[in-house]
C-alpha cells in the first residue's frame, strides 16, 4: 500500500496541509520545517502524483462534486448542484459531478488521476467511511453535512435537528396533541445519513417535550407508498390531527393521499414540512414549514473549498445555518 500524505505528516510532526504546502509552494514554509518534511518524504518513499507535486502549474480548474444518487427521480440535490456550479463558474472553475455510489474508492481514483483540484462532498453519513480518505487527500475538501467526527475537515450544513423541532413545536403551539412523522426511505436511515437522522431526532424530542402522541415511519416517494403511510398513521393514531413530512419528493403524494382518505387540509389535519421552497410553495395548498437554504449552502461550500488549504485543521468548526419557519396554507389551530 502506498504511503499517504497523512503518514508523511505524522512522521514529520506537521499537519497534512503543511506537507501539501511544501509540495506545491502555495505558502511560505520555514526552512527547518521544509527540511523535516522533505526528509520524511524521502524516508517513507512518498510518491505524490504530478498534480500534487505542482498544483500551481498543473491546475485543472475543476471542482469534484460528490453527490451519490441513492434514489431514482430524486431531484432534491439539484438546487445544491446549481448553486455550486454557479459559484464555481464565477471563479473560473468547472464542476465534475460524481454520482456513482462507490464510496472512498471512487474519490481516491478521481483525485489520484489529477482530474480535480478540490472536492465538495454531499450525502454525509454520521459514521462516514470516506472521512479517512478525504483527510489524507492533498486537495482542499468541503463537506455539506456533518459527520460525528469531522476529522478537522471544513463542514457546512443546515440545522435539520432544529428545523424539525421547530416544525413540531409550531404544531404544538397550534394546539395539536398528535403528530405523524413521514420521513425518508428506509435506505437513508440504514446508511446513517446524517441530516436524516438529526431531523428525526429533533422531531421526536420536540414531540416528547410537548407531550404529543407520536408515530414515525420511512416512506418512498410514490403515491402507493404515501397511501400506505397515511393509512398506517391513522390506524396507529385514530386521533391524528397533524402530519410532518421530511421527504420532498413524497410531499405532493402525501397531500393527495390525505385528500383521498377524506382529510381536508388544514380543516381536518395540519401539514408541515422541511423541503426546498419551490416544493413548499408549488403545492395546493402551499405547505407551511422550513425551507432548506440549498443555494446558500451550495454557494458557501464552493467558496469554502476554493479558499481552503489542503488537509484537515484541528481548529475548523462546522457551520450550521439556522432554520426559519414560514406559515402558509396547510396548517391551522386545532378546533378552529
Keywords:
336 residues, alpha/beta, 434 Repressor (Amino-terminal Domain), six-stranded mixed beta sheet, 15 helices
Please summarize what this structure is.
The chain is α/β, with parallel strands linked by helices. Helices cover 43% and strands 15% of the residues.
Strands, helices and their partners?
Blueprint: H1 5-12, H2 16-24, H3 31-44, H4 50-53, H5 55-58, E1 62-66, H6 78-90, E2 94-98, H7 103-112, E3 118-121, H8 131-136, E4 141-144, E5 155-158, H9 160-173, E6 178-182, H10 186-190, H11 194-209, E7 213-217, H12 223-236, E8 242-245, H13 251-260, E9 270-275, H14 277-281, E10 288-291, H15 294-307, E11 319-321, E12 325-326
Helix pairs in contact: 1-2, 1-3, 6-15, 9-11, 12-13
3D architecture notes:
This protein has 336 residues and is of the alpha/beta class. It is built from 15 helices and twelve strands. The protein is elongated. Mean pLDDT is 89; it is low at 50-57.
- Helical/strand content category: alpha/beta
Instruction: Find the CATH topology of the domain at 160-292.
Output: Rossmann fold
- Tell me what the CATH architecture of the domain at 160-292 is: 3-Layer(aba) Sandwich
Radius of gyration: 23 Å
- Give the class-level CATH name of the domain at 160-292: Alpha Beta
Helix and strand succession? Answer: HHHHHEHEHEHEEHEHHEHEHEHEHEE
Please state roughly what percent of the residues sit in beta strands, choosing from under 5%, 5-15%, 15-25%, 25-35%, 35-45% or over 45%.
15-25%
Main beta sheet: strand number and arrangement?
6 strands, parallel
What is the CATH superfamily classification of the domain at 160-292?
Answer: Response regulator
| Backbone shape | elongated
Amino acid at each position: 500500500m502506498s504511503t499517504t500524505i497523512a503518514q508523511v505528516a505524522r512522521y514529520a510532526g506537521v499537519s497534512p496541509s503543511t506537507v501539501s504546502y511544501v509540495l506545491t509552494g502555495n505558502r511560505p514554509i520555514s526552512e527547518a520545517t521544509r527540511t523535516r518534511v522533505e526528509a520524511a518524504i524521502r524516508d517513507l518513499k512518498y510518491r505524490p502524483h504530478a498534480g500534487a507535486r505542482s498544483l500551481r502549474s498543473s491546475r485543472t480548474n475543476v471542482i469534484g462534486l460528490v453527490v451519490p444518487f441513492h434514489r431514482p427521480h430524486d431531484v432534491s440535490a439539484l438546487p445544491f448542484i446549481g448553486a455550486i456550479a454557479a459559484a464555481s463558474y464565477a471563479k473560473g472553475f468547472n464542476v465534475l459531478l460524481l454520482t456513482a455510489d462507490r464510496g472512498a474508492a471512487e474519490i481516491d481514483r478521481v483525485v489520484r488521476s489529477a482530474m480535480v483540484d478540490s472536492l465538495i462532498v454531499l450525502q454525509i453519513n454520521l459514521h462516514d467511511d470516506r472521512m479517512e480518505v478525504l483527510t489524507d487527500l492533498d486537495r482542499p475538501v468541503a463537506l455539506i453535512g456533518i459527520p460525528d467526527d469531522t476529522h478537522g475537515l471544513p463542514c457546512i450544513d443546515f440545522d435539520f435537528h432544529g428545523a424539525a423541532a421547530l416544525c413540531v413545536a409550531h404544531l404544538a403551539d397550534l394546539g395539536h396533541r398528535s403528530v405523524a412523522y413521514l420521513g425518508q426511505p428506509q435506505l437513508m436511515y440504514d446508511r446513517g445519513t446524517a441530516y436524516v437522522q438529526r431531523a428525526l431526532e429533533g422531531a421526536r424530542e420536540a414531540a416528547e417535550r410537548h407531550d404529543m402522541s407520536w408515530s414515525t415511519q420511512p416512506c418512498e416517494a410514490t403515491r402507493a407508498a404515501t397511501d400506505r403511510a397515511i393509512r398506517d398513521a391513522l390506524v396507529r393514531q385514530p386521533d391524528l390531527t397533524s402530519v410532518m413530512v421530511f421527504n420532498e419528493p413524497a410531499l405532493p403524494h402525501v397531500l393527495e393521499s390525505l385528500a383521498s382518505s377524506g382529510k381536508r387540509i388544514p380543516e381536518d389535519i395540519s401539514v408541515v414540512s422541511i423541503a426546498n421552497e419551490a416544493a413548499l410553495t408549488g403545492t395546493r395548498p402551499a405547505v407551511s414549514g422550513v425551507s432548506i437554504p440549498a443555494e446558500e449552502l451550495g454557494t458557501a461550500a464552493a467558496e469554502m473549498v476554493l479558499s481552503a488549504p489542503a488537509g484537515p485543521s484541528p481548529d475548523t468548526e462546522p457551520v450550521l445555518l439556522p432554520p426559519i419557519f414560514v406559515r402558509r396554507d396547510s396548517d391551522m389551530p386545532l378546533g378552529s
